[in-house]
């Protein structure tokens, strides 16, 4: 549809340029117009409308010329609206698809990805695609069709003059383009690199704002940002200037050519009244063509400068969704046991196995502790149990059924994960407990029940707004213990069969930890709880404790045995 509109717009441009010839002619010599065969056709049409075309020829052609100009401008405006809406709709599609493909990657891919690259790609680079790729491509196509119809029009009026003009202007644009090509590519590479760097500096400065303030390192972070941002803006300025330079050369050349043409016609002895309509049509054609040609050149320049960034975007859009992370069916309820059978695993970036021949069984309703030194494999073990990582060998069995890509989604729906750092949105307490659900679809009864079991209901009820109280960005308005209880309430609201506390209390003081663990102990005996902890005291209520050492199960024992070193 846009292509049809481009063709129509090009034709209306010729209509506007062509209408100036009879208009100027009738201003200088009326009979030259009224005696033509074309005017006779128009006269017959006007007679039918009750208008005398010969008595009012000047009025008729003035109205015709004005109509052509207004209609051409209206179509151009419609084309601008259409191409802008299409470009931004396509930009939205690109951003959404990049974000979707990022989220639908396996967990291990996210472990090695840089969040600055993701944010820069989805927000900044995809937006640049609109102004630097999609709109320029549309306008280059528009310029092509406009040149084509102008060529057809002028080749029938003055073929030699038009061919010489097109050749000269085309050669000038080509020479400028060749001389700027390398500089545009270099500027594009700098922009692509610094976009990522600027985003990284921002995230690091804001993410660690407490340490920045305590260390008085604001100036350091500002200098980092200023250096990277200066390189980014300088490269952007370079690209913009290079894309704009030709306009001034071409405008000067066009005016000079027009003046030279008038001079040659006057020197030839030909009456200016005969040449004036042709000169007027040339002037109007140049006025219409030059902005379109300049826009097309800017589009080409933008495409060249953005090509490194475009390569990154295309790689993102071509990233296969290699893991089935779509909607799962009904949750797989844990009825008897979760078992690891000879499970081994090694990260792609690691030279040695992170887990080796892991074997154990967790029965439904048990409280299981997992301990071990840093690097012993605790987090990897938990990630495998949640189906986030796939074992290199061996299998994870739920009630004797191996976990696979076919049923992993259903298994994950029966799990709840409470990490050390709970993710909290800048939303209400209710929305944070029922995370991922629309506010109007939250089950209020289940919400209250989960809050009571997590022992945070009394605190929520004491707030003026209750469950509708907002907790601030990243939960800045609540304490560490309340944050963890919200995480536990979230797990209970999910009605999970297995709740995994992944060092969920390691950042809390002893009193707060005991209070939070009371919330865990009050859970239903039907819920299986796996607790990863640094402090042995956290595990005193566990039925059994799995101790890891260098990626292997060192022993499985009771709390007392672990405490005594037996």
What does this structure look like?
The chain has two domains: 2-317, ABC transporter type 1, transmembrane domain (ABC transporter transmembrane region fold), CATH 1.20.1560; 337-564, Rossmann fold (3-Layer(aba) Sandwich). The protein is an alpha/beta fold. The longest helix is centred in the middle third of the chain and has 50 residues, at 218-267. The strands form two sheets. The chain has a six-stranded mixed β-sheet with strand order 6-7-8-3-9-10, sandwiched between helices. Helix content is 63%, strand content 10%. It contains 18 helices and ten strands. The chain is elongated. It has helices spanning 2-28, 31-34, 37-48, 57-103, 107-112, 115-155, 159-207, 209-214, 218-267, 272-317, 378-385, 408-412, 429-433, 444-453, 457-462, 480-493, 510-521, 559-564, and strands at residues 337-345, 355-363, 367-372, 393-398, 401-402, 415-419, 498-502, 528-532, 544-549, 552-557. The model has no long low-confidence stretch (mean pLDDT 78). 33% of the residues are buried. Helix 4 (57-103) runs antiparallel to helix 6 (115-155).
